[in-house]
Amino acid sequence: MTYLPLASESGVEEAGVIEIHSKARLTPQDHDAARRVLRVYRNMQSMFAHSERDALTGLLNRKSFDDTFYKSFRDEPQAAVDESVPSHAGGIAAVPKRRAESGEVFWLAMVDVDHFKLVNDKYGHQIGDEVLILVARILKNTFRGYDRIYRFGGEEFVILLRCPDHASAVLAVERFRVAMEKYAFPQVGSITASVGLSEIKVSDTPEAVCERADQAVYYAKRNGRNRVCSYTDLEQQGLLQAEVKAGGVELF
């Protein structure tokens, strides 16, 4: 039995180990052949990953959302994790992970960074890109490993998550909003986000659930920003009827 390290894309750290079973000890020529096969495998994995991920943040991209939307309903939750997620560079604190439970419901949260156009106008696009990278890190620290996080483009992010009920989903997204609010972004300082939440129904298309979450985001931005709005709550209170979304209006 022979173990060969599977290096990460950068080649600096190990991403895993390949176990090779053979009757005889591998020769140096065998090692070289195995490493060549692993190199091809790593290159193919990198190619597939790049087609599905946002180049700036490393999150899943808009293109991959539709492809994985229906598959998400069939994926089983991973084992529960008791430990907190390790902190990333930049001082973003990890938060305790929520346990996966049977019978969980799927939810979609749409995140829109408040006043992001003003950040670009005042500090430049390089600082704006840094803000987006840090927002992506906060998202990854806040949500569980099997909650799927996407960057839809610009300052808009989407999360597919599992929670047992409406209250748990709101609480999970609220944790992100608070973490975002408390984080001190270099040079920029405090930046907030408005979040719209919608339950994903069995008959939903990606467009339908995104539209509901988008309406909730629009309401949040029209009513103070830096808040989580649930489409269900807004609908039950009759608040969406008073909100008419005018085409071409950018709220920043």
Structure explained in plain terms:
- By secondary structure, this protein is α+β, with helices and mostly antiparallel strands.
- A hairpin with a 3-residue loop joins strand 7 and strand 8.
- It has a 6-stranded mixed beta sheet, with helices on both faces.
- The radius of gyration is 21 Å and the shape is globular.
- Helix 3 (116-123) packs across helix 4 and helix 4 packs across helix 5.
- It folds into 2 domains: 2-52, no CATH class; 60-242, Alpha-Beta Plaits, CATH 3.30.70.270.
- The model is unreliable at 9-13, 75-90, 93-102 and 244-252 (pLDDT under 50).
- It has 7 helices and 10 strands.
- It has helices at residues 28-52, 62-72, 116-123, 125-142, 166-182, 206-222, 231-236; strands spanning 2-7, 14-20, 60-61, 105-113, 148-153, 156-163, 184-185, 189-190, 193-199, 228-230.
Q: Please state the overall shape, judged from the principal axes of the Cα atoms.
A: globular
Provide the CATH architecture of the largest domain: 2-Layer Sandwich
How many domains is the backbone divided into?
2
Number of helices: 7
* Unreliably modeled segments: 9-13, 75-90, 93-102, 244-252
Give the N-terminus to C-terminus distance in angstroms.
Answer: 58 Å
Main sheet, how many strands, which sense, barrel?
6 strands, mixed
The spatial strand order of the largest sheet comes to 3-5-6-4-9-10
Q: H/E element string?
A: EEHEHEHHEEHEEEHEH
As a whole number of angstroms, the C-alpha radius of gyration is 21 Å
Which CATH C-level class of the largest domain is it?
A: Alpha Beta
